[in-house]
Amino acid sequence: MWVSLHTVLKVPVVVRPVTASQALLSWATVTRADVDHYTAVDMQLYTKITIALILGVVAGLLANILDIDPLTRLLVSIEPIGTAWIRLITMVVVPLVFASLIVGTASLGDITKLGRIGSKTIVYYMATTAIAVTIGLLLSNLVQPGARMSPEGLEALRSNYMAEGASRVELAQDAPALIDVLLNMIPRNPVAALAAGDMLPIIFFAIFLGAAISALPMERRDHIVGFFDGLNEACMVMIHWIMKLAPYAVFALIGAVIARFGLDVLSSLLVYVVAVLIGLALHVAITYSLALKFLARRNPLAFFRKIRGVQLIAFSTSSSNATLPLTMETAEDELGIEKEVSSFVLPLGATINMDGTALYQAVATMFIAQVLIGDISLTVQLGIVLTATLASIGAAGVPSAGIIILVVVLEGVLAGSGIDPAAGIALILGVDRILDMCRTAVNVTGDLTAAAVIERSEYEHALRGGGAR
Ligand code: ASP
After folding, report:
1. What's the 399 CA to ligand 1 centre distance in angstroms?
2. 377 C-alpha vs ligand 1 centroid, how far in Å?
3. pLDDT at residue 436, rounded to an integer
4. CA dist., res. 128 & res. 451, Å (int)
5. 350 CB within 6 A, ligand 1
């Protein structure tokens, strides 16, 4: 019997053919009797996480609006529970990505297939990111969020966040140049890359090793692949265990964020926040739905329903990297995407594909420029499309990465105006965490959509006689 993470806590139980590892997974999770028990008295994990999220928001709002100091202190003091959980799930990322990529690559059987999947993935990622930035720009021109700020609101933001803004600019200065990013993809020492959790060099080495393993004689190959397959499945079991704690972590994370979050900031930046949110919603509703319908040939609504858990976790953790184990599990078990595609497309996506971040960068840049320098020419806007697309590739899948990389985009736009990027960052820092949560949910949705699109195109390639799938 096969029981996925998501089916453990809900009906109906999905029964699929057994593999040894799947049997292990089901053993490690529940028996059929347990499932019946769960379905009678327990809620779906997804529902539990949603409730935790709502409770966290309500508790945080109560503490914030009514200024209940002990509640704020309590919420802030339990935040480490959430942080511990993020560390737990992040702990699985490196072994999971490494093992799963090796298994995925080694079982491709044909190295040209890897090149094909790789180039399709990169083109798709760049295209959807450029569309996201364009949506952000169109919206900013339409809504003009920066033109609606009151001078008092502006002054308050500037004085509150200027120092923090400057520290973000300093962090951005440490970001490596593009050529170094490319060179750094080739690890001098793969063990050091694994130890440091540097995703691109890990991906590079795992693919290289996987390709070499696929060139070995069958007995040798099966031995190594069997080992990594086992490691991969053990990671899935760990994810399953860790996910049981997710509702508590979500409550702890959200409660503290909302308790600290000043609602006054929200009111002065409301138009900007709403513009980003509408942009993100449009990107999901239009770009991803069309891609799913016409490229992946899947029902978008059914697809989004299956990935709700991943979106919630991305939202709560603000980190594509921390969400990656669940993203991979969901792709394989819930969406039925083949490992050879998901093991490559998803870790790469968590690292380089950030549509939500790119869209946010476009709106944020336009907002800051509208406030600080007035109107922005079309040429500068085209520059924003390019830099925001590239900058989002450079953003790591961790909380707040987007705002640090935003400095790079801002420097281009504000160049020659004599305005310090820190002044721009100071304007929007107060609402960054909330937007980070939303853009991260879009980032992971984009990665999963890409996996479905690439898998479909591989399938069609095979149908046209392009070799085994
Ligand atoms: N937190 C985002 C992510 O992990 C990156 C960002 O800050 O936009 O996907």
Report:
1. 5
2. 28
3. 94
4. 13
5. no
What percentage of the chain carries pLDDT values higher than 90? Answer: 45
Interval between CA 279 and ligand 1 midpoint (Å): 16
**Phi, psi for 375 (deg, rounded to 5):** -75, 155
90 lines ligand 1 (CB under 6 A): no
Give the architecture (CATH level 2) of 47-96+108-199+229-463: Orthogonal Bundle (1.10)
Query: 371: Cβ below 6 Å to ligand 1?
Result: no
Residue whose CA is closest, atom 6 of ligand 1? Answer: 402
Residue 322: pLDDT above 80?
Answer: yes
Please work out whether the CB of residue 442 comes within 6 Å of at least one atom of ligand 1: no
Q: How far apart are CA 404 and CA 429, in angstroms?
A: 11
Nearest to 331 by CA among 416, 258, 236: 236
Cα–Cα distance list, 337 to 49, 255, 286, 449, 459 (Å): 24, 35, 22, 11, 11
> Would you say 164 and 430 are in contact if contact means Cβ atoms under 8 Å apart?
no
The torsion angles phi and psi of 217, rounded to 5 degrees, stand at -60, 155
Distance CA 461, CA 469 (A): 8
Residue tagged 């021109």 (tokens): 141
Distance CA 408, CA 327 (A): 29
State if residue 209 touches ligand 1 by the CB under 6 angstroms criterion.
no
Alpha carbons 336 and 274: distance in angstroms, whole number: 35
Q: Is the CB of 445 under 6 A from ligand 1?
A: no
What are the extents of the domains in the chain? 47-96+108-199+229-463
List pLDDT tens digits, range 245-293.
999 999 999 898 888 876 666 777 889 999 999 999 999 999 999 999 9
Q: DSSP strand E in 418-468: where?
A: none
* CB proximity list for 414: less than 8 A, separation 6 or greater: 368, 369, 372, 373, 420, 421, 424
For a substitution probing ligand 1, which of 283, 354, 409, 444 has the most ligand atoms within 8 Å of its CB? 354
What is the rounded CA–CA span in Å between residue 170 and residue 407? 9
When pLDDT is cut at 50, 70 and 90, the band that residue 95 belongs to is: very high
Least confident range from 320-324, 339-343, 396-400: namely 396-400
Q: Can you point out the beta strands (E) in 243-316?
A: none
In the reported structure, the alpha carbon of residue 458 is separated from the centroid of ligand 1 by a whole-number distance in angstroms of: 29
38-42, 112-116, 386-390, 438-442: range with highest mean pLDDT: 438-442
